[in-house]
């Protein structure tokens, strides 16, 4: 039986991707060892760090402190114990520590390349981020990416394996079946209010549909929250909820008819299928999202697609769904079946097995 160490400063509670990978690996004939000390530094803080470089000293001190405790955890495992080390979400820096601590090939989950984040959020110093990505990829034996479109951004494609974001079985177990067609259409968005999500487009649609038979639930906080809140706070059909623990989030999302995906038009928006889409589908919601190649390829007939960054088309799609509640229910059921067959941990485990074999094959 192989020993696989899942290593890094990821936060399993806040990074669903890591949770799905661990659950998927658990279905293989391997022994999973977690070596993890979460870095308390969220995405918003990282963006502030780039725009306010004087924060760099504080970040480095926090990272070094986290790495110190990570080294102590690694010593309990032993340098030669793992057959493969999997470096979790945002591991562009952690991979170098992993290479120092273990004599094993390293699989880098490259779901969020720094250069892609910099481009999507119009951050400076992109050449530095690109260099960090390239160096991390160079030191890995295998790279996990989430879509075929993102394969184009990998420097050495021969070491890349496509593993969709996926969804944990906790979401699948809580899917609501046999929804009624009574009452208003229930539509939810949850996320970090980033440009990638196109929340301004969602806000335009909500404003245009303020007199329609729809109840909106907006969950989370983030970059564009204040602007959206100021515009829509007066509408009585909008419910605002701060970010929730996963169990509460699953319960709330599963009570809705439609889950909104992303509607941005950046290069990153064109190349990803976001976690929320997989989670909404698993929870039994009909998915309404932008018509991009990766989302259409991933979701097929289990979603309604509209052009990116087009509030009028989003409004038209919602009005059509208000008139056809039976279709909404059907789409929700199809989305759940599709998620179960293609994005559950069991569906992803075979791809991860291939990644492990590739890492061992390519190891020095």
Walk me through the structure.
The chain has 364 residues and is of the alpha/beta class. It folds into two domains: 2-166 and 344-362, Rossmann fold; 169-342, 3-Layer(aba) Sandwich (Rossmann fold), CATH 3.40.50.2000. It is built from 16 helices and twelve strands. It has helices at residues 16-25, 43-51, 56-77, 94-101, 114-120, 126-139, 148-151, 169-173, 199-208, 225-232, 246-253, 275-282, 293-299, 311-323, 325-342, 345-362, and strands at 2-8, 30-36, 84-87, 106-109, 142-145, 160-162, 185-190, 214-219, 238-241, 258-260, 286-290, 303-306. The protein has a six-stranded parallel beta sheet with strand order 2-1-3-4-5-6, sandwiched between helices. The protein has a six-stranded parallel beta sheet with strand order 9-8-7-10-11-12, with helices on both faces. β1, α1 and β2 (30-36) form a beta-alpha-beta unit. α5 (114-120) runs antiparallel to α6 (126-139). The longest helix has 22 residues, at 56-77. The radius of gyration is 21 Å and the shape is globular. The relative contact order is 0.13. The model has no long low-confidence stretch (mean pLDDT 90).
CATH level-four homologous superfamily name of the largest domain: Glycogen Phosphorylase B
Oligomeric state of the chains?
single chain
The CATH architecture of the largest domain: 3-Layer(aba) Sandwich
User: In DSSP terms, counting alpha (H) and pi (I) runs of 4 or more, how many helices?
Assistant: 16
Question: How far do the termini sit from each other?
Answer: 21 Å
The number of distinct β-strands equals: 12
Question: Topology as H/E string?
Answer: EHEHHEHEHHEHEHEHEHEHEHEHEHHH
